[in-house]
Amino acid sequence: MLGVTIGILPGLTATMGVALLVTLTYKMAPDQAILTLMCVYLGAIYGGSRTAILLNILGTPANAAATLDGYPLAQQGKAGLAMGPATTSSTLGTMVGIFFLAIIAPLLSEAALKFGSYEFFWLALFGVVISGQMTGSDTPLKGYIAGILGLLVAMVGMETLHAHQRFTFGIAALGGGVDLIPAMVGAFGLAEILSAMKRKVIGHVVPVNDRVVPTLREIFQYWRTIIRSGIIGTFIGIIPGVGEDVGSRSSYAAAKRASKHPEEFGKGSQEGLIAAETGDNAVVSAAMIPTLTPALPGSAAAAVLIAAMLIHGIRPGPMLMVENAPFLYQIVAMLLLATIANLIFGLSLTKLFIKVLAVPRERLMAVIYILCVVGSFAITQRMFDVYVMLIFGVVGFLLREMKYPMAPLVLGIVLGDLLDLNLRRGLALTRGDPTPFFTRPISAVICLIIVATILMSIPPVAGRVKGLFGRKGAEQPSSL
Amino acid sequence: MTAFVLVAPGLAVIYLSRTMPRLEARRIHPATIPGLVPLFLGIGLTCCGGLLLWRSWRIEALGGWQNLFDLLKTREALRIGVVLGLALIHTLVLVGLIPFWAAAMLFIFAFIMIFETWLSEGPAEPLKSFCWALTIAVVGGGGIYLVFERIFLVRLP
Fold it and tell me: Which helix (H) or strand (E) holds A157?
C-alpha cells in the first residue's frame, strides 16, 4: 500500500521511494527487507497509473503512455473501466515477467559463471551505452554524457586494484568514494522536490462513478496485447538500465501497430492503456534478471535494490546461484505476493487512493525532504552523505532541466567500479595485451553490439543501414 | 554552452589522470595504472562535449542552457530558490544546532507557510495554512523521529 501511495503521489517516483525506504529496513532480516523494497517498487509503478488516469499527470515516469488513453477514458466517464483493466493488466504483466525471471535467471547465472574480466568489462560498458542510447530523450549523446559523468563519479575514492585514492583532493570523507544511496536520494529525491515545487500543478481529479472490478471478458479480450506487451516489457527489463518508461512506450507503440483500431489510440483506447500498463509492470520483474545474475541493474530502482542487497549481506551476481540459490526463488515469490497485493488493493481501495491524490504538494514535499536527509545520513551516519545528497539533488535537477537522462548516470555510478577493475585486471592478466578483450567469443559479441549501438546513433550511418534493409523513410533515426 | 562546460572538466580529468601517480615503486604494469580508466573517460567526455558543440552549430538544441536561463527569469526560479534556501538553512545551520526533531518541525512549518501564503498561486488562507503547517510539522517531524529513532532504531543527525 505504501508503494501504491508513493506511485500515486505526483513527484514521488519508485526509485525515490525505494531509496528512502532502505533506511527503514536496516534492522530487518534480509529477506524481509528486500520483500519490503520489492513491494514498494512494484506498488509505485502500478500506483502511478492512477494519477495518469484520473489527473493526466505522471505518477511516475513509467506511466507516460498510460496518460495517453487513461485520461481520455476517464473524461468519457469510464474511469473505473480504465482503472480496472489497468490493474489486472499490471498484474498479468508482472506475472509474464516473473515467468521469464524464473526461467531465464538461473540459465543466465550459469552462463555468467563462465564470464571473466574481459566479459564483465564489456558488460559494464554495454550497460552504460545501451542505457544512454535508449533513455536520451532528444539525443543519445546526452545519454552517453550522463553515463560518462556517472562513471567519473564512481572513479572518486580508493580504487580496488592497487588501493590508490583518486580525485579525493585531500578530503578524507571522499576516500571511500561516493555512496550510491545518498547520490540516488539526491538525484531522485531532492531533484524531484525541486521539479515538483517549480510550479503549482493545477489538475482536476476525474470522479469515478462506474464499476472498477472488470469482468473476465474485459480482462482477456486483449490477451494477445497482454502477452505481446509482457514479452516486450520483459525484453526491455533484461537490458540494463533502460527501465519501465521505455518498456511502457515500446509496448504501447507495438500495440498501436498491431491493433485493428489504431485510430482509437490516444483518444481513450482500452487496448493502448492495457499495453502500456502490462509493459511497464513486466519490466519491474524482468529487471531483476540482470540485477540478480550479472549484477547489472535493469532499472534505476533496481540499482538501489542492489545497494540494499549488499547492505543486507546478499551479493547479487553470477555467484548468487552458488552461494544463495534459494534467494532467486524468494524474489520470484516476493514479486508474486506483491503483485497479488497490488491487485487486491487496486480493485478494492479505489476511493482511499483517490483521496491521496488530493494531498497538496506543499504539505508533502516538506516531509519528503526531511526523509531525504534521514535516508542519506542513516547508512554511514555522516553529515558528509547529506551534503552529497544536496549536491546530487541540485546537479540532478539542472541535468533534468537540460533534458539529460538520470538512468545512465545512476548506472555509471553502479558499474564504474566493475568496469575499471575488470579492464585493468584483464590487462594485468595478459601483461598489457588487450587482444583477449576482442578475441574471446562472448567479449567479441558484446563489443560488436556496443560498436553497432554507438554507430546507429550517428544519423548518416543509421540512414544508410536502414536504406540497406529497405526501410528508408519508415522511421526517423535517433540523432546525435 | 553546455559543450564548454563539459569540455573543461573533460580536459581537467585528462590532466589529473595523466599526472596521477603511476606507482612505479610497486612495480605494477603500466597498463594497470589507476589513471587509465579516468583518462579514457576524460577523453570520452571531451569528445562528447566537442560533438555537442558541433551539433549546436548545425541544429538548434532542444532544452539546453536556454531553458535554464529562461527559468531563471521566472517566478519558478524564486520557488526553486526558496526550496534550496530552506534546505540549506535546515541542513547546514539547524541540524547540529538544535535537536533533529525540532529542526525538522521548523523546516516543515516554514516550508508549508511560505508556499501556502507568500508563494501561493491561488488565494491564500493564512489561518488555515497556519493550522495545517503546525499540525503537519508536529506530526511529521515528531513522527519521523519516533518511527526512525525509537521504532526502527536508526540514528538521526
Answer: strand A157-158
